[in-house]
Amino acid sequence: MDIGKILESLVNNTRTLKRVSYAVLALTVVIDFFISRHHHVFFWEDIPGFSAVYGFISCVLIVVVSKALGHYWLERSEDYYND
Question: Are the C-beta atoms of residues 48 and 36 closer than 8 Å to each other?
Fold first, then answer.
């Protein structure tokens, strides 16, 4: 099977895409338990899975804030150019 067809079927089926995304996030957190850390600068670097969860939350926050900015700041009414 072609990799393009697999990716296309994932994108078309949102339930499967969500499940795959959550599985990759969970796998990243689990793998983080087995990675050794040599030099710690901050205390949160010792928490397994912190980077993956922090990155996921940051990404979701960026999307939500961007959509809110686009809706309230950039979006214009339908008759904006007719006035």
Answer: no
Are 37 and 45 in contact, with CB atoms under 8 Å apart?
A: yes
C-alpha distances (whole Å) from 3 to each of 16, 20, 27 are 16, 15, 21
In a domain, 54, yes or no: yes
CA distance 15 to 20: 9
**Owner of token pair 């214009």:** 76
Find the domain containing 41 and state its range: 3-74
Q: Which of 79, 63, 59 is nearest to 71 (CA)?
A: 63
Is 9 part of a structural domain of the chain? yes
Q: What's this model's pTM, rounded to 2 decimal places?
A: 0.58
Q: How many helices (H) and strands (E) does the chain have?
A: 3, 0
pLDDT surpassing 70 at residue 83: no
